[in-house]
Design goal:
The structure holds 2 protein chains of 2 kinds. Chain A is built from 4 helices and 5 strands. Chain A is α+β, with helices and mostly antiparallel strands. Chain A has one domain (4-144): Histidine kinase-like ATPase, C-terminal domain (Heat Shock Protein 90). The longest helix of chain A is centred in the N-terminal third of the chain and has 21 residues, at 35-55. Chain B starts with 6 loop residues before the first strand and ends with a helix. In chain B, helix 1 (26-41) packs parallel to helix 2. By secondary structure, chain B is of the alpha/beta class. Chain B has one domain: Transcription Regulator spoIIAA (2-Layer Sandwich), CATH 3.30.750.24. In chain B, strand 1 (7-12) and strand 2 form a beta hairpin. The chains are: A alpha+beta, B alpha/beta. Bound molecules: adenosine-5'-triphosphate and magnesium ion. The site of magnesium ion (MG) has 4 residues of chain A, from helix 2.
Chain lengths: 151, 114
């Protein structure tokens, strides 16, 4: 199977996250990830895209970009938003803000679980401010764990 | 376009049963919240949410269920959920929400727990 480098751009609206989740789920399944892992990957993508739409897009027209790369060993997904300038400080990704989000997370809170979920269920999780002033989230799921390649 | 048509409401011995027939990502989560808010506004006290036909749930939808369960309890009511697929149970456990919302195997056991 050839290595793939797939690019998608969706409007910044939650309506388009379901189709993206379905596409990535099918891709992950065909790459050989286990059912459990496919569900985890789909959840991580949902959380990252939901954040890009809710927190990283001024309006629905700006769009969210995805770059999906796969090879025999891993599935790597980059989600790029443009930031929502009217929402607080330009760089929300400070060490302080992240520790605050982490420290404030509580099971009985209604929100604040998305980043935690995405971090917990991926093998690599990185966030960076991009040139547009938005956020790049990069996640990697490694394929070659013996437990993962069973159906 | 809305997913509320995929959320069917019934009542059994004074308990509202909400059966969800769509995956709960952010799109449907806001509709779920709306449906639950309407029930709160109608002063409904006991709700069972049947998730047997749901194959995906995200943190926003879990948050909506947690929030409504907490508010109902303040008035002596509750929201209980039932019939979760394995991956849904994993998501509730990961967030820790399974210690906040009561989860039952079946709709009948959830109803019986009121
Ligand atoms: N792409 C993003 N751009 C800007 N801010 C973001 C982005 N992603 C996350 N954040 C910030 O980090 C916070 C935590 O995100 P997280 O996904 O953990 O929780 P949440 O989105 O608030 O709630 P939920 O549990 O529904 O996901 C957000 O409230 C937001 O302030
Ligand atoms: Mg989020």
């Amino acid at each position: 199977m050839a290595n793939a480098d797939i690019k998608l751009k969706i409007p910044s609206a939650v309506f388009y996250i379901d189709p993206v989740r379905a596409f990535i789920g099918n891709l992950a399944k065909n790459l050989g990830f286990s059912r459990k892992r496919v569900a985890d990957i789909q959840l991580v993508i949902d959380e990252i895209c939901s954040n890009a739409v809710h927190h990283g897009s001024i309006d629905t027209t700006v769009g969210v970009k995805l770059q999906i790369r796969s090879d025999a060993h891993a599935l790597e997904i980059l989600v790029r938003d443009t930031g929502s300038r009217h929402k607080g400080p330009k760089n929300w990704l400070t060490h302080e803000r992240l520790s605050e989000i982490e420290a404030n997370r509580s099971p009985s809170n209604e929100g604040g679980h998305g980043i935690f979920i995405a971090k917990s269920l991926s093998d690599t999780y990185e966030m960076k401010i991009n040139a547009a002033g938005g956020t790049d989230v990069r996640v990697v799921f490694q394929l070659l764990k013996p437990a993962d390649t069973k159906p | 376009m809305d997913s509320t048509k995929l959320m069917k409401l019934r009542e059994e011995s004074g308990i509202k049963i909400l059966e969800i027939k769509t995956d709960l990502s952010s799109y449907a989560a806001s509709d779920l919240r709306k449906v639950l808010e309407d029930l709160l506004a109608e002063k409904v006290e006991k709700i069972v949410v049947n998730l047997s036909q749901v194959s995906h749930i995200n943190s926003t939808a879990v948050g909506a269920l947690v929030g409504v369960a907490k508010r109902l309890r303040q008035n002596g009511g509750d929201l209980k959920i039932c019939a979760l697929a394995d991956n849904l149970t994993r998501t509730f456990n990961l967030i820790g929400a399974s210690s906040v919302v009561e989860i039952y195997e079946s709709e009948n056991s959830a109803l019986a727990a009121f």
